[in-house]
Write a structure and sequence with these properties.
Layout (H helix, E strand, L loop, with lengths): L26 E5 L6 E5 L12 E5 L1 E3 L3 E6 L6 E10 L2 E7 L9 E4 L4 E8 L5 E7 L3 H8 L25 E4 L11 H9 L3 E7 L22 E5 L1 H12 L4 E4 L1 H10 L9 E5 L14 E5 L6 H9 L2 H13 L10 E4 L1
Parallel strand pairs: 1-17, 3-12, 3-14, 4-11, 14-16
Antiparallel strand pairs: 1-2, 5-6, 5-8, 6-7, 7-10, 8-9, 9-10, 12-13, 13-15, 16-17
Helix pairs in contact: 5-6
């Protein structure tokens, strides 16, 4: 299976640079995963495609201000650090620009020394392990010094940082937002609950590995980076009861999907647990838990595009993307949504 099989032409002007004023007014492309039939709706119409007894699964991770700017002690040049994931305590895996300024043993300071980081090692993929030193609470220091890590294809300034958070975000730890959830408002979620749809939450802290390009020609040689997830006993029970009762599991986003498929057994049941997942889902994969998917429009040749192709077919997805381009849908993080039913 070749990387180029998942390519498509995307005009640059269709990459959304800012969120809509009203989250639920985004457009929604409905795709029948079996027939390939397509409908065009608004996101708030999603409620008409959810039935009493179904279960909507949301990722309640919260993006941290993971971008830091500092410099080596005694040097003036700026160094950019992007926190990817906490390895343990004060040790983080990070991206560094420029990398040549961060060798093992180098000490980088931020905020006039409020925070210092010692480079421990350079990993095979070019990321660094850095151990931080500080006085106080790390999250509070991060709130003071850090910036929201918007994706590189978003070049405009975001006025309201909460627009890069879902309305139900709770557990801090992501380097990027689970963007399919950005379309929901509290009012829409309440209407969905009132319809008799179950809502369950999982947590997967999104790392940049999810979005890293596939560089190998044969996608089977691609290695996914691991991301931390957790699912509670209460939420596992909601999902399992839905399955047992014949309801559909509607996953909101590829992050929720990867978590559910990691913890699900062959009978489609999930279990309360936590850990790390590097699951890579591509066409040919047999879904155990997820029946339907709400998702945004993804980058060409990305692992996310491969995942959605697995739920339908490569042909159906690429045709839907072709139509989305023709219909001028907005793409990527602040863009419009697709419902694969």
């Amino acid at each position: 299976m070749k990387r180029e099989d998942f390519n498509f032409i995307l005009p640059e002007e269709l990459i959304a640079q800012h969120p809509l004023e009203n989250r639920e007014e985004s457009r929604l492309l409905i795709l029948d995963k079996e027939t390939g039939a397509i409908e065009h709706k608004l996101f708030k119409d999603i409620i008409n495609y959810l039935n009493k007894g179904d279960c909507l699964v949301l990722n309640d991770t919260r993006v941290i201000p993971a971008r830091l700017y500092g410099h080596r002690i005694g040097k003036e040049e700026s160094i950019e650090i992007l926190l990817l994931k906490r390895i343990n305590n004060n040790i983080w895996e990070v991206l560094v620009k420029p990398g040549k300024k961060a060798r093992p043993g180098h000490i980088i300071e931020f905020g006039e020394g409020i925070l210092k980081g010692t480079v421990l090692s350079i990993e095979e993929d070019g990321t660094r392990l850095i151990e931080f030193e500080y006085t106080g609470i790390f999250e509070e220091i991060l709130d003071k010094l850090g910036e929201m890590p918007l994706p590189p294809y978003i070049t405009e300034v975001l006025d309201d940082k909460e627009r890069y958070q879902t309305v139900y975000s709770k557990n801090k730890g992501s380097a990027a937002a689970p963007t399919a959830g950005l379309h929901f408002t509290n009012e829409l979620l309440e209407d969905i609950r009132n319809k008799g749809v179950n809502i369950a939450y999982i947590t997967l802290h999104v790392g940049l590995g999810t979005f890293r390009p596939v560089k190998v020609d044969n996608i089977l040689e691609h290695h996914m980076h691991s991301e931390y997830f957790q699912i509670s006993e209460e939420d596992a029970a909601i999902i399992n009861n839905t399955k047992s009762s014949g309801g559909k599991i509607i996953s909101v986003g590829t992050t929720s999907t990867r978590t559910l498929e990691t913890v699900g057994n062959e009978d489609g049941m999930v279990f309360p647990t936590s850990g790390w997942t590097d699951i890579f889902i591509y066409p040919g994969y047999k879904f155990k838990v997820v029946d339907r998917l709400i998702t945004n429009f993804h980058l060409p040749e990305s692992t996310l595009l491969m995942l959605v192709s697995a739920l339908s077919t490569q042909e159906n997805i690429l045709n839907a993307y072709k139509i989305a381009v023709e219909e001028r849908y907005r793409f990527f993080s602040f863009g419009d949504a697709m419902f694969i039913k």
